């Protein structure tokens, strides 16, 4: 079991992230972080940079820079916010929708491959533990 002195969980997450990220880069020229952004934008018809930052749990500045990179790839665009001239709304472009659709099965297959050998009771226990831990970290316990 991992302890504060041996953060095995953090290392496992990093290892999994790196494996999935490498596959996405090789097959789609997309990082796992970019896919995460596209998934957020794909779930919402429109949203602001601040909304994405809150969902992914990173700063607004980092989110804005990441959106700049997605725009440069042609995967999303900013449009004027009719309710607030100080902010923009983010929308997936048709190219962004295609990139998301193409990369999603690769992501799902990579995730399944790396957890396939774990027995279902362990997966269920792990998922519940992570949900509880996240709620605790978010101050919702």
Give a verbal description of the structure.
The chain is built from 6 helices and 2 strands; from the N terminus they run ααααββαα. It has a single domain (8-137), classed as Winged helix-like DNA-binding domain superfamily/Winged helix DNA-binding domain (Arc Repressor Mutant, subunit A, Orthogonal Bundle). The radius of gyration is 17 Å and the shape is globular. The two termini are 23 Å apart. Helix content is 67%, strand content 7%. It has 141 residues and is mostly helical. A two-stranded antiparallel sheet has the order 1-2.
Number of helices: 6
H/E series: HHHHEEHH
Q: Which blocks of ≥5 consecutive residues have pLDDT under 50?
A: none
CATH topology: Arc Repressor Mutant, subunit A
Structural class: mainly alpha
Distance between the termini: 23 Å
Beta-strand residue fraction: 5-15%
CATH superfamily label:
Winged helix-like DNA-binding domain superfamily/Winged helix DNA-binding domain
- Shape label: globular
Mean pLDDT score, rounded?
90
- Spatial order of the strands in the main sheet? 1-2
The level of helicity is 55-70%
| Biggest sheet details | 2 strands, antiparallel
Measured on Cα atoms, how large is the radius of gyration?
17 Å
CATH class: Mainly Alpha
Strand tally, please?
A: 2
Structural domain tally? 1
Name given to the CATH architecture:
Orthogonal Bundle
